[in-house]
Amino acid sequence: MRLALLSLAAALLLCGCTDWGPAPERAKREAIVETALGQVGRPYRYGGDSPDGFDCSGLVEYSYAEAGISVPHNTTALRSTGSHISLGNARPGDLLFYRFSNSASSLHVAIYLGHGKMVHAPASGREVSVIHTDQDPWPGRFLGAVRVLR
Questions:
Q1: What SS3 state is found at 75?
Q2: Active site residue ranges
Q3: Residue 16 lies inside a defined structural domain of this protein
Q4: What are phi and psi of 43, to 5 degrees?
Q5: CB-side exposure of 131: number of CA atoms within 13 Å?
Q6: 84-140 per-position pLDDT tens digit
Q7: For residue 17, is it within any domain?
Q8: Could you tell me if residue 108 is inside a domain?
Q9: Beta-sheet pairing, 142-147 with 129-132
Q10: The pLDDT of residue 6 is above 60
């Protein structure tokens, strides 16, 4: 499992086919992605924001903090932190938002990795994992992408 993650990280960081954005933000995006991928297999923990356990926004907060960027540990606040973009324009490190239910306040956030993949802390009893964006974990509940880095 660890070898597969290292291979994925290397492919994402070295492949020229992913748009990482302007040079000054590339290092930050790389740090966010590398940190998030390093948490794969860690347990889900409601309110968690450390390798002891993460909830979805805690994984984002932790990964961004390791890149020197302060963001809130709250999905609603995260959604209004940056600018809204289309999934087609997403770069590694951008945030993807989903609704868990019909409630507008029941949100989930993931970190886009590039190449149609994202990393997230899915739910209680599960671990931080990487999935394909076309494996929509909540069909029809994708709300959009947000770019925090500019």
A1: helix
A2: 56, 108, 120
A3: no
A4: -75, 155
A5: 15
A6: 999 999 999 999 999 877 666 679 999 999 999 999 999 888 999 998 887 666 677
A7: no
A8: yes
A9: unpaired
A10: no
